[in-house]
Amino acid sequence: MSILQPGADAPDFELESHKNEKIKGSSYKGQKKVMLVFYPLDFTPT
User: Fold this and answer.
1) What residues have CB less than 8 Å from 12, skipping those under 6 apart?
2) Are 10 and 36 in contact, with CB atoms under 8 Å apart?
């Protein structure tokens, strides 16, 4: 596991959108700013 420093480039990733489309992080490089947010326990009673 590596820790990114502020301002560092994120590693490339691939996710599925809410429209079931595959999205690659690298497809936005140089075009838009992208912010990834991770939080635990989504949709749980905690």
Assistant:
1) 24, 25, 26
2) yes
| Alpha-carbon gap, residue 8 to 10, rounded angstroms | 6
Candidates 43, 24, 42; CA nearest to 34 is 24
- The string of DSSP codes covering 1-46 is ---PPTTPPPPP-EEE-TTS-EEEGGGGTTT--------SSTTS--
Predicted confidence (pLDDT) per residue in 1-46, tens digit = 678 788 887 788 898 888 999 989 888 888 877 777 777 777 777 6
